[in-house]
């Protein structure tokens, strides 16, 4: 029988998805100053995936398994390509702080879409009330963007709509990984590697079709952007994402989704401190409402 995971390993994994992931929103925004979105996704996930495959090879893992590659690639496209692509495009409309605040509703979508757990998830009044409250918080943020006057008539509320789609995609990918990529037979680190490579390939195809590769000027990329990209590859993808996939195997999906408690707080602090982003009272109120709702549905 497999040994249960150690408490230290679980704590370290939660630190990565709580704190490190919260910081990635800011560094994505930094990279987007110099990298087109599809190119950023290509380099980030292709490099991280290839590096993890090399590590798996050194560990003696069997990598070329059709079932493993197919399931992992599907999961990677849903989790990484759609969600991260949405985040990058949304940051053309809204700040990294607001992106992270909206992403905090992911835990609610996971609970709403986790059909096998409906009987358990919706048996208490507080859970249902928490979900309703959370979506009211999302509505607050959307209405704020809808009513704000922006130069040039920009429709910044589109960023919120994009983020809602990204949250749903991340929830679907999380549940797919939870129920269809499980156990030692489906790979551990190698599954994460193939997920990243799957996303990287789709990002590359989109970059080629959209002309993002031809618009990239490597000589104009600043040192800060290169360092931010390295941070996203090593800490955001290779370490934090792998920790997330591992936690989905050893802990309940709704518990792992509680990274939504901390990610937006970290992102708001970093965005306001390093990026000098404006955080409105409505955004802070929306964050409070969403986090209270997530705590209501996960109060145990």
UniProtKB/TrEMBL annotation:
GO terms for cellular component: membrane. Residues 15-142, 158-298 form the EamA domain. SUPFAM superfamilies: Multidrug resistance efflux transporter EmrE. Pfam families: EamA. Keywords: Membrane, Transmembrane, Transmembrane helix. The keyword ATP-binding does not apply. Its main location: membrane. It comes from the Bacteria. It is found in: Membrane. It is a multi-pass membrane protein. The chain crosses the membrane at residues 7-29, 35-56, 68-87, 93-113, 125-143, 155-176, 188-211, 223-244, 256-274, 280-297. Belongs to the EamA transporter family. PANTHER family: EAMA DOMAIN-CONTAINING PROTEIN, INNER MEMBRANE TRANSPORTER. This is Membrane protein. It comes from Xylanibacter rarus.
């Amino acid at each position: 029988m497999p040994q249960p995971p150690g408490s230290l390993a679980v704590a370290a994994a939660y630190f990565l998805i709580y704190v490190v992931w919260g910081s990635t929103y800011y560094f994505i925004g930094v990279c987007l100053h110099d990298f087109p979105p599809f190119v950023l996704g290509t380099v980030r996930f292709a490099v991280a995936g290839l590096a993890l495959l090399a590590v798996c090879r050194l560990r003696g893992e069997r990598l070329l398994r059709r079932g493993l590659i197919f399931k992992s690639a599907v999961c990677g496209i849903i989790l990484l390509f759609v969600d991260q692509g949405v985040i990058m495009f949304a940051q053309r409309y809204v700040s990294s702080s607001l992106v992270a605040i909206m992403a905090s509703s992911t835990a609610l979508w996971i609970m709403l879409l986790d059909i096998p757990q409906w009987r358990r998830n919706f048996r208490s009044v507080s859970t249902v009330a928490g979900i309703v409250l959370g979506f009211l918080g999302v509505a607050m943020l959307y209405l704020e963007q809808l009513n704000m006057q922006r130069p040039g008539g920009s429709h910044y509320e589109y960023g919120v709509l994009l983020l809602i789609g990204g949250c749903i995609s991340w929830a679907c990918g999380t549940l797919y990984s939870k129920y269809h990529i499980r156990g030692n037979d489906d790979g551990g680190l190698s599954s994460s590697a193939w997920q990243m490579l799957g996303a990287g390939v789709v990002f590359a195809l989109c970059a080629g079709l959209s002309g993002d590769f031809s618009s990239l000027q490597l000589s104009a990329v600043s040192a800060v952007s290169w360092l931010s990209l390295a941070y996203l590859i090593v800490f955001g993808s290779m370490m934090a994402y792998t920790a997330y996939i591992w936690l989905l195997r050893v802990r309940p999906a709704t518990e792992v989704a509680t990274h939504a408690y901390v990610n937006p707080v970290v992102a708001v602090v970093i965005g306001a401190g390093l990026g000098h982003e404006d955080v409105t009272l409505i955004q802070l109120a929306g964050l409070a409402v969403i986090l209270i709702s997530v705590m209501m549905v996960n109060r145990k």
